[in-house]
Amino acid sequence: GSSLLIIAMKSFSGFAKYQAVLGDLDLHLDYAVLGLFSVVGIVGSVLGGHVGARLDQRLLRRIFALLLLVMALGMGVATLHGMLTTASLAVGR
Q1: Are 29 and 22 in contact (CB under 8 A)?
Q2: How far apart are CA 7 and CA 13, in angstroms?
Q3: DSSP-derived secondary structure letter, 30
Q4: Rounded Cα gap, residues 23 and 27, in angstroms
Q5: Which residue in 81, 77, 52, 76 sits closest to 64, CA to CA?
Q6: pLDDT tens digit string along 13-46?
Q7: 46 alpha carbon, distance to own chain's centre
Q8: Residues 6+ apart with CB under 8 A from 28
Q9: 49-78 tens-digit pLDDT
Q10: Cα 62 from chain centroid (whole Å)
Q11: How far apart are CA 24 and CA 30, in angstroms?
Q12: Is there a contact between 22 and 28 (Cβ–Cβ < 8 Å)?
């Protein structure tokens, strides 16, 4: 609970600063999109809690580990692609 509070406070301060930066650039946040993400996140959290309580915890940890591995591989491929694209553009100049 305390770590969640710290994360929430840090996120709120970053959000407030980001809003000030957007105001300086005469840009605005799309609150409809923010609201949609919030609602989907809350509903997903509640549903995930119910599903997680019914699943075998060992299986749930394995599924989570697999998800982390897939995400890491995807981010690695995207990063490598970006680096190679940037390098090829630099060589082509």
Answers
A1: yes
A2: 10
A3: -
A4: 6
A5: 52
A6: 988 888 888 888 998 889 999 999 999 999 999 9
A7: 18
A8: 22
A9: 898 888 899 998 999 999 999 999 999 999
A10: 21
A11: 16
A12: yes
Q: What angle do CA 9, 46, 58 make, to 5 degrees?
A: 100
At position 62, the amino acid (one-letter code) is: R
**Paired tokens of 43:** 């509903």
Residue 83, both tokens: 């680096």
Please give the single-letter amino acid code of residue 35: G
Q: Indicate whether this model's pTM tops 0.70.
A: no
Give alpha helix (H) positions in 1-93: 2-24, 31-54, 57-91
In one-letter notation, the amino acid at residue 27 is L
Count the residues in the chain.
93
Amino acid at residue number 40: V
